Amino acid sequence: MSFFSRYRILLPVISLAVLLAATFYMQPRAMSYFGLNLLFNLAVPIALATIAQMMILMVNDIDLSIGAFVSLVACVTATFLNDAPLLGLLILAALILAYAAMGAVIDALELPAIVVTLGMSFVWGGLALFILPSPGGAAPGWLRTLMTVKPPLMPMAVVASILIAFVTHMLIIRSGFGTVLRGVGGNARAISRAGLSVTRLKAWAYGLAGFFGVLAGMALVGLTTAADANIALRYTLLSIAGVILGGGEFTGGKVSPTGAVIGALTLTLAASFLSFLRLSPDWQIGSQGAILILVLTARLIFSRKGDAA
Amino acid sequence: MSEHESVPIVTLTDAAKHFGPVRALDGVSLSVRPGDCLGLVGHNGAGKSTLVYLVNGGFAPSAGEISFSGADDAAGAGVRSVFQELSLCPNLTVAENLRISNRALTGAGWRRNARAIITESLDEIFPGHGIDPDTEVDMLPIAERQMVEIAIGFAPRGTEARLVILDEPTSSLDAGIAEQLLTHIKSYCAAGGAVIFISHMLGEVFQVASRIIVLKDGRIVAERATEDFTRQGLVEAMGHVAAEGSAGTDLAERQTGEIVIRTEQGLTARKGEIVGLSGLAGHGQAEALAKLYLSQSSNWRAGHEPKSVFVAGDRPRDGILPLWSILNNMSISFLRQIESWGFVDRAAERAKAEEWKKRIGIRTEDITNPVLSLSGGNQQKVLFARALASTAPVVIMDDPMRGVDVGTKQDVYAMIRDEAAHGRTFMWYSTETEEVCQCDRVFVFRNGEISAELVPPNITEERILEASFHMQEAS
């Protein structure tokens, strides 16, 4: 077994380190408290959305609605949560419950998650437009303060990423409950044979995804100070890419929360790196895709070697 | 049997289970007491799995009654099951898998406890196993996965195990490990535990069981102490007459043709030959076959005629298409033969599949039923039908008889011999020495290398064992 297939986390770490080194080489001024914060600021909501996506991939499903959902949360945060905090919190709690219910329905009726979540993405999108037909709203003051706080030593974005990775690692990898949730992705029949309800566990996984989706939307509004119904649509694909980049798999319950956060950071950094290269924005999305393919190819080669050894 | 006075752990009274019109289990009365080791035999579809699911609380009976002593349900009474298809979560570590079935493992130190419990259980059953509890299960070979599953079955999980149901526990284990398990079962029962032991390896059943129950068509047709059965009598009770000693002699004289397979590793096979691969489980036989098969099939420019077909032993992983019907599972290999202008000729497809269903004896009323509605042995027959219905001159079989009953095996042996006589070549890896002894030529594997090539009259159990073990004793 090769070194890389045993320590799956290494490849994401190396990808991030290489990209970071290249960025610093291109733009030495980025190597500062302020520079790092600018580079990774927008990574916080993406990392949270990636964690949400990971919860779904963990139970062998895929969520095509997370981008629309985060947008909806952003709209709720910029309007209700700002104007009537209690009502706003209730709406957000209801959204999390709706996500959990979606998971339960998907499992109980054996529906394909890809179809249900695609359908739900239009529901979330519609609700978001209903709440905020044109860009606007305002971030609650406390959220704004939280997202622009300047902790000593490390910028907020880095501290937040480490905190997200640590909390989700404890929740998903270390805790017994997280182990059972990963077991659902590994072999759902074994779980039901052990007398556990797969439907309930899937509801939990989706509920957790909803929770992290809500955090992502709130973090996003805290950074941008306003919302828009389409603000986070690209998060759907970014979050899937982030999980995979971080060493996760589409099936089999193989996920890594730390890897997912690193994957989200890598994707954010890739965008900045391409700007530093003075690449025309027209080419940036394609180049981001190229970086993604490069990393995934490297992973495939290492895992192939691991199998052969 | 001094313990017969004690309270039964589980009692079934006239228990029945119907699935629609199908009577999977048709009125079974049975009780298991502490210290019992019950051998449960019967061919595929006889109702063994259904009985297991009733006893372990997976199904509620359609009629009749099940009662557990000292608890309301199977889990509370300490009933555990170890299944034929592996039911571990491959993405979790060995210790984490214990957590799935043991909800009592909570708190901050659960990981340490889980590691200790599973290691203790493994050490007790399989001394010298060498399995690290922190390895992810999908990194383990299939034999070690089965060992882990058995160890979890016997491990304390909040409640102590009082009755452990083992469904084909030795099917992926080699002889030495299987012997360790049988020894453990005996000492476990002697200490007051109970075991229901389901196996198609009758030798093992005779070795461990104190009582043997024969199931046929959902009913118990015989229940006696082990001493009162003979092997012949047991096979007859199951409803199949074993063809003993007929193999080998006629095979040895058959003429075989030119060499059609020659690999770097040294495997050779002639046209019309049945070549066996043997040795201890997990010593490179499956890999050798997979390599051979992929080298013959993975070519973009390959023609329409397949050079070889593969019969998988690990059905869920390599064999069946679980969402498809029996018909589609079979016909995938011969679609080329029946297409016209790129479209499938449905009538021809159906006719051909019906013919194979009859030839190979697949037990179903309608071949358009989903393939998962069949029992394991019948699913395997579908895979055989798929392979044999193709035009490929070489059939590669990776331990295809795993969990297949005696009667089906005899049918398939006959079919293989017949096909070989018509010029097909078979490459056959089997964990059962008895099967390998029917081959025309046997390669014995050890540590991923061929350690011996045997031809009649040297194909005997002793020679194979000698070739499998020799080096290990020397080193």
Structural write-up:
The complex is a heterodimer of chains A (309) and B (475). Chain A is mainly alpha-helical. Chain A contains 16 helices and no strands. Chain A has helices at 3-6, 10-26, 33-40, 43-58, 66-78, 80-83, 85-108, 113-131, 141-147, 156-174, 176-186, 188-193, 198-224, 235-245, 257-276, 281-308. The model of chain A has no long low-confidence stretch (mean pLDDT 90). With 475 residues, chain B is of the alpha/beta class. Chain B folds into two domains: 3-238, Rossmann fold (3-Layer(aba) Sandwich), CATH 3.40.50.300; 247-468, 3-Layer(aba) Sandwich (Rossmann fold), CATH 3.40.50. In chain B, the strands form five sheets. A six-stranded mixed β-sheet of chain B has the order 5-6-7-3-8-9, with helices on both faces. Chain B has a six-stranded mixed β-sheet with strand order 13-16-17-12-18-19, sandwiched between helices. In chain B, strands 2-1-4 form a three-stranded antiparallel β-sheet, with helices on one face. In chain B, β8 and β9 (219-225) form a beta hairpin. Chain B is globular. Chain A binds chain B through residues 1, 174, 176, 179-180, 182-183, 185-187, 189-191, 193-196, 252-254, and chain B through 58, 75, 81, 83, 87-92, 96-97, 99-101, 105-106, 110-111, 138-139.
Helix-strand category of chain B: alpha/beta
Helix content of chain B: 25-40%
Helix content of chain A: over 70%
Largest interface comes to: A-B, 20 and 21 residues
What distance separates the N and C termini of chain B?
A: 44 Å
CATH C-level category of the largest domain in chain B:
Alpha Beta
How much strand of chain B?
Answer: 15-25%
Low-confidence stretches of chain B: 240-253, 471-475
Task: Flag low-confidence runs of chain A.
Answer: none
Number of domains of chain B: 2
Count of helices of chain B?
Answer: 17
